Amino acid sequence: AQSVTQLDSQVPVFEEAPVELRCNYSSSVSVYLFWYVQYPNQGLQLLLKYLSGSTLVKGINGFEAEFNKSQTSFHLRKPSVHISDTAEYFCAVDGAGKSTFGDGTTLTVKP
Amino acid sequence: DTGVSQNPRHKITKRGQNVTFRCDPISEHNRLYWYRQTLGQGPEFLTYFQNEAQLEKSRLLSDRFSAERPKGSFSTLEIQRTEQGDSAMYLCASSSSDRAQETQYFGPGTRLLVL
Q1: What is the DSSP letter of A83?
Q2: Peptide bond just before B25 cis, omega within 30 deg
Q3: Residues in chain A closer than 8 A to B48 (CB atoms)
Q4: Quick one: three-class SS letters along B28-83?
Q5: Distance from the first to the final alpha carbon of chain A
Q6: Integer Cα distance of A57 and A63 in angstroms
Q7: Is the pLDDT of residue A2 over 60?
Q8: Does B104 score more than 70 pLDDT?
Q9: What's the confidence (pLDDT) of residue A46?
Q10: What is the pLDDT of residues B47-92, one digit of tens each?
Q11: Would you tell me which residues 39-58 of chain B have a C-beta closer than 8 angstroms to some C-beta of chain A?
Q12: How far apart, in whole angstroms, are the C-alpha atoms of residue A23 and residue B53?
């Protein structure tokens, strides 16, 4: 069985400030980890994924995430956010060919 | 490549009616997934296909739900005798192989409202 917990349901932040969206997971097998972004009325778009190797993963739009096996975490970070980053962000784990998603974090970037 | 498409984008129906949604995956993607997303929650896995074979169904998928992918290309998801609790966004995704690390590409979803 696998599960994902996104620790913050909403994260408000001012433009150009750094942001971290937290994600913890549990799984009984080796996992692959993903972050997706969902803009209003659109489907999910992959931001980045961790498969193996370097624990620091870089994705699109300036986002990066760090895999921490001992803490079973995969937190998403961006050093400076833009208004256009306002969206819903989902962390997901895939260990058996299908993905299990967290409940999402709403990132709101304020001017 | 136009990406994953889903039709209709919105559907309003009365309780007890049947509805059918269609998903067209990225061409030559052999894996196709269906998820359900309710307000304030992440997508929940419903079922997936490897080509035309339906390999797994979630316990969330009651007997009123049926999915098909007859020729290994597009897929349909039918809900019979709809209930208000079926109101949700139904998402389709496709990927190019059966390896878990392959990226899933999502469609825009079909939003169902059952009155």
Answers
A1: G
A2: no
A3: 97-98
A4: CCCEEEEEEECCCCCCEEEEEEECCEEEEECCCCCCCEEEECCCCCCEEEEECCCC
A5: 41
A6: 9
A7: yes
A8: yes
A9: 92
A10: 999 999 998 888 878 899 999 999 889 999 999 999 999 999 999 9
A11: 40-45, 48, 55-56
A12: 33
User: How many Å apart are CA B37 and CA B60, to the nearest integer?
Assistant: 12
* B31: its two tokens: 């894996």
Out of B40, B103, B108, closest to residue A103 by CB: B40
Strand partners, A35: A48, A91
pLDDT of A29 = 73
Determine contact, residues B102/B50, Cβ cutoff 8 Å: no
Here the tokens at position B94 are 């496709």
Query: Cβ of B112: how many Cβ atoms within 10 Å?
Result: 20
Closest listed residue to residue B50, CA positions, set B65, B78, B67, B69: B69
CB A47 within 8 A of CB A63: yes
Mean pLDDT, rounded, for A47-73:
92
Report helix, strand or coil for B7.
strand
Query: Does residue A86 have a pLDDT over 70?
Result: yes
